Each structure stands twice: as structure tokens, then as C-alpha cells.
Amino acid sequence: MTEADSVVMKLKQRLLADRKRIEEELRTLVESESSESAGESMGELSMYDNHPADVATETFEREKNEALIRNAETILKRINMALESMEKGTYGVCRECNEHISPERLEVLPYAVTCMTCQERSERKT
Ligand SMILES: [Zn+2]
User: Fold this and answer.
1) Number of other CB atoms surrounding residue 79 within 10 Å
2) Average pLDDT of the residues in 45-71
3) 20 exposed, middle or buried (CB, 10 Å; 0-12, 13-18, 19+)?
């Protein structure tokens, strides 16, 4: 086994552990969201009884929850892509420019699918 292989093996273990953790987080988030929206349909009228600040907090909490869910889903997708590319032997190659992603970047972000340059470019776009 080459050194690069053992690095990938180590990162794979991290990705699998991360995936498990995020999947659990996501499940908790989705559960709390569905229990919140269950009471929402009858909340329309009673909303006027609430203190406006409470409503704002509720809305904020729900939006935060949704953002967390979206975020977790994105990371899960990336982790799966990274694991897939490990199977194919294309792990660590930028999907935008086909350059190798620096090992330092992969160490920090094992599920990175683009190199720093492409990442920065796509962040500027959005
Ligand atoms: Zn790139």
C-alpha cells in the first residue's frame, strides 16, 4: 500500500464517521421540523394572540432549522460523492478543473470535490 493509499483510507474512515453523524443530525432536524409544522395549520389565527416577538422567534427557529437541514443534505451529498470517487480512484481530483486538490485541503475538508481555486470562483458567483 502506498502512502497516498493509506491517506485515502484514513480519510475514508473519517468520511464514513462523518456521514453517520450527519445522518443522525439530519434525522433529528427533520423530526423536529415535522413536529413543528404539524401545529402550523391551526396556528394561523392564534398567531394574533401571540406576542409578535414570539412569532418572530418561531419563524427564525424554523428558518434556522431549514437552513441546517439544507446544509446537512449538501454535506451528505458531498461525502457520498467523495466516497464514490474513492471507489473509482478519482478521489482528490477537482471536478471542475481536473487538478489535484491539495492534501492540506483534503485534510481539513475530506469531502471537498473542488480545489481551492474553483471553490473560490464558485463562491464569488453565488
Ligand atoms: Zn479546480
Assistant:
1) 21
2) 80
3) exposed
